[in-house]
Amino acid sequence: MAEFVESCELRAQFAAGLSRMYGAEVPAYHTLVEVSSLINTAFPGALRLGSLERVTAERHGAIRVGSAAELAQVADLFSAFGMYPVGFYDLRDAASPIPVVSTAFRPIGQEELARNPFRVFTSMLTVADGRFFSADLSTRVQRFLDSRQLFDPALIAAAQRIAAAGGCPARDASGFVAAAVSAFALSREPIDRAWYDELSAVSAVAADIAGVTSTHINHLTPRVLDIDALQQAMTERGITMIDRIQGPPRVDGPQVLLRQTSFRALAEPRRFRSPSGEVTDGTLRVRFGEVEQRGVALTRAGRERYDAAMSAPDPAAVWQRHFPATDAEMAASGLAYYIGGDPSRPVVYEDFLPASAAGIFRSNLDTASAAVQGGDTTEYCQDWMAGRIGHHIHDPYDLYEKVAHS
């Protein structure tokens, strides 16, 4: 009987393959991984928030697509790796709005997360939102998106078969993983300069999504146990980091949710085609090196307190008004998830924060977007997305509840 490779092992191979490819494309990524590993090894509390082995191997990727049809293909592809959509994020409401809605594809079971917690934060362009796109530009963008093919239909068909079977024969595994990885390689095809510039006037993210004929890994993020130490260490190595760490402040009590930082987007060589057909060399700054520190997952009540604290001019100054200083008090107050209610067993936050994601995007752009005017008249919401991609989108709170009571 042929050896069978389960989806979790395919996921590990996929994450490793993307890491090798992205490291070859963005060499500073290797420095980020090296510094993260050094800090994790020296950190005393690794076992509390996941084993050192898990934390060091942990990654999340980020990709961007243009339409619900493309997002549906992504959902089918990632399902072969045991990665399912969790949560709905609307980045259009951020202080510096980004014209995308997003979900995150990840394992949903605790055992699967322990085996390999690879996630891919996936954003979709909101072409129908008239606050960003005029009717004429929306029509032209949609026509452009309809004309391109991000994924080989044979790859998606294979992914659907593998997802249904929970894996594939060993003889098919390496070829499938290699094809999936290559689908996210940075294209060397010349970019239509005029079209790219027109979309850049709307948003640099819109240009990165619909200004090219392919998609690519935008960043690949390792996990670190002390993000403040990493920010300092990277700066000391001469790498320019964004101005401030995104997410909750550093506190003396339990660290909650997610903190993120990144090195500034690097100028990467790209080729451009002028209206006359001439091809010239140039650069784009769209990809950056992100790193994250994960804390305990908050309950809905805890999230309300988090939002209140973060709305203050200086969240750190008011943090103690909203959150107690110990895990025991957090657990007793029902503000965070702990396995069996045991404060020594925090449930790690596995998801994302829209404000932080938008903040990372904004910090890596040369110009910020103005706040959008008027109300949202589009259908973009979690139910809409789930219906269009044909996959249930899991509620993160439901997943944390199951872990806490397991």
TrEMBL record:
GO MF annotations in UniProt: dioxygenase activity
EC top class named in words: oxidoreductase
Domain of life: Bacteria
Needed co-factor(s): Fe(2+)
Residue spans crossing the bilayer: none
EC number(s) given by UniProt: 1.13.11.93
InterPro entries cross-referenced by the UniProt entry: HGLS
The protein's name in its UniProt record: 2-oxoadipate dioxygenase/decarboxylase
